[in-house]
Amino acid sequence: MNRPDLAAPQPVHSLEARYYTDPEIFKRELNGTLATTWQFAGHASLVRNNGDYFAFSVADQDLFCIRDRDGNLRTFYNVCQHRAHELVSGTGNCKVVVCPYHAWTYELSGELRSGPNIKSVEGFDRKQICLTEVRTEVFCGFIFVNLDPDAKPMADWFPGVEKELRAFVPHIDDLEPLEWVEISERCNWKVSVENYSECYHCALNHPTFATGVVKPETYDIQPRGYCLRHTTECQNLDRMSYPIDTEASEHAEEYSSWFLWPAFSFQVYPGSVLNTYHWRPESVDKVVVWRGWYTPAGVDSDVIRRLAVQDRGTTVEEDIHLVESVQRGLNSRGYRPGPLVIDPACGVNSEHSIRALQQWMREAVDGVNGI
Predict the structure, then answer these.
(1) Which residues of 174-207 are buried (b: 16+ CB within 10 A; e: fewer)?
(2) For the chain, where do the domains classified as CATH 3.90.380.10 start and end?
(3) CATH of domain 157-366
(4) Longest CA pairwise span in the chain (Å)
(5) Which of 165, 198, 279, 337 is least buried, going by the fewest C-beta atoms within 10 A?
(6) In whole numbers, what is the pLDDT of the chain averaged over residues?
């Protein structure tokens, strides 16, 4: 009698719906995944001069980045050490940081400088009071922070990415933001990240991207460290939906992307055009995706403007409908996680990248040690 092969491999199934719908899991991510990984803060052009600052938030924590008197870039929690008032908002420049509540004043390096009548307090030692600093790195002109003081550097998380990115965008140090496109999606942030991290759906759902930007049959995504590396050839030049500079770099006729777990991606369109994604989770079922477009010194460009408009009207709009439909489906009582389509040969019609991504998601939520 024939017996089933007990050693036969079993398909890898997608994550259970609770990873995307449970508010407690989202709360765990705010305190874990999003607080212990490298998160995008802003572009270095925002803090070009000493005293320049900008406020932002990561994992429900308000922070601000500032360039001190010695030209060092620093990030602090945006809270006064006196009575917890926020210190700054928006962007600006200052000689010292003054709390709007009681005028406690801090040096740009974070130390308390003065406060009204503090000398009358017996035993008061202002040298013991300092703003709480956050780990900060500049990566190709982009500022990243990590709330974990013991986090390993970005080079350990994303080996080889900076060198490779510079090969695709040789002028990256000269780039500044031209425009930001803010997209609100009614879905869990991981649904949106997963959608970005496979092109199994591209030919069916992104006709402009699939016929006027890339050749889907050459698309592949491979994990490397905590990076998902997207590669593909650009579409035939006579079919491209925008004019490309084929001399921009040795990779000008390629499309590439480096997704940096958990919530940022550098994306290089044919012609060495840099575009970035930044996912900002707001609740268990809402995420805001910021798409940045860059030019040398932020100088206006009709080509980049038109490409941004094309992208917003096609790929972005198409993806909004997809991810929001998925979120509704995850709340269905009828959903049973199906097997991922994992082709040993990889390629565009394989979800091997989703297997890696969901493993990181599972490890982060369930407490398995990562890097």
Answers:
(1) ebbbbeeeebebebbbbbbbbbbbbbbebbebbe
(2) 157-366
(3) 3.90.380.10
(4) 93
(5) 337
(6) 93
- Does residue 109 register a pLDDT over 90? yes
Give percent helix, percent strand, percent coil of the chain, each to the nearest 5: 30, 30, 40
Task: Count each helix (H run) and each strand (E run) in the chain, helices first.
Answer: 10, 17
pLDDT (tens digit per residue) in 49-83: 999 999 999 999 999 999 999 999 999 999 999 99
pLDDT at 263: 98
CATH superfamily entry for domain 39-146: Rieske [2Fe-2S] iron-sulphur domain (2.102.10.10)
What average pLDDT does this structure show over 304-331?
Answer: 95
The tens digit of pLDDT for each residue in 222-264 reads 999 999 999 998 888 888 888 988 988 999 899 999 999 999 9
* Burial bucket for residue 369 (CB in 10 Å: 0-12, 13-18, 19+): exposed
Which is it for the CA torsion 109, 114, 119, 120, positive or negative?
negative
Q: Dig out the tokens for 192 from the structure.
A: 């949106």
DSSP class per residue in 249-279: -TTTTEEEEEEETTTEEEEEETTTEEEEEEE
